[in-house]
Amino acid sequence: MTRQLISSGSRFEQEIGYSRAVVDGEWVFVSGTTGFDYATMTISDDLQAQTEQCLKNIQSALRQAGADFADIVRVTYVLPDAARFPDCWPILRKYFGTVRPAAMMISAGLSDPRMQIEIEVTARKRPAEATP
Fold first, then answer.
1. How far apart are CA 131 and CA 96, in angstroms?
2. For the chain, which residues make up each domain, given as ranges?
3. Choosing a second label site near 61 at 20 to 30 A (CA), which of 26, 33, 46, 72?
4. Cα Rg for the chain, rounded, in angstroms?
5. Is domain 3-124 annotated with CATH 3.30.1330.40?
6. Percentage of the chain lying above the pLDDT 90 cut
7. What is the pLDDT of residues 6-17, one digit of tens each?
8. In whole numbers, what is the pLDDT of the chain averaged over residues?
């Protein structure tokens, strides 16, 4: 079984020394992901826009790993301001409403004051279905 490292191209991965995601067998571990648009290295000042971008970044990593949102079994949300968590719910419901992974929300400071949310997921790739 091989280990696959996935990068988003973010300068943070190189500077800090981590991968956006690591695939180990059927498991996909996606690092804490913020709302930065990695193509432009910009971040919105709107929490809902950051939440949407976090999930797009996660989706990109999952697809590179051969997985998707339906494979997510665990999600952790980190917000500096816990009172703002309900503002994220419509976007979270859009992506996780039918998946309904095990979840946890933590209120903690993030490494950049512009960051209003960070999301980490764990997925388990499903075996390919046999074709009749």
1. 28
2. 3-124
3. 46
4. 15
5. yes
6. 79
7. 988 777 788 888
8. 92
Residue type, 64: Q
Which strand (E) or helix (H) includes residue 106?
Answer: strand 102-107
Residue 56 structure tokens: 């797009």
| Residue 90 token pair | 């419509």
Residue 72 identity: I
Query: Tens of pLDDT along 16-55?
Result: 888 899 999 999 999 999 999 988 889 999 999 999 999 9
pTM of the full predicted structure?
Answer: 0.90
Give the amino acid at 97. G
Helix pair 85-96, 47-64: axis angle to 10 deg:
30
- Cα–chain center distance at 32: 6
**Is there a contact between 32 and 118 (Cβ–Cβ < 8 Å)?**
yes
